[in-house]
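Translate sequence into structure tokens.
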Amino acid sequence: MDGSEEETKTGVDTEFGKAAEYLEPMGEEGPYYAIIAEINNLGFVGGLLVNTKFQILNDKRTPVQGLFAVGLESEGVLFNDTYVGNGVGIGYSFTSGRLGGENAASIALEKSK
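Result follows.
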């Protein structure tokens, strides 16, 4: 048993000092996945063209099967020379990430049936 599993049983996080009520064992079933997520508070001019499901569109404006873009890669909130405000990139990244992820998962689940 590694230290982190032991800490969930004792309720004492010796490495990070996390409060006992937030220590939860992961269990032995998986699989488990980890990602690195980074955010930026700036928008982007241009980027990939996407539809409302965050599917990437080709030059004929039809979805490219299986390709999605969210966050700054698809953000178009900066138009011409106007910057609409600080933090717009963060809000768009969170929202598009959730909606794009839900749409990608839905399509993947439909194909697996």
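Note: The helical segments are 3-10, 88-111.
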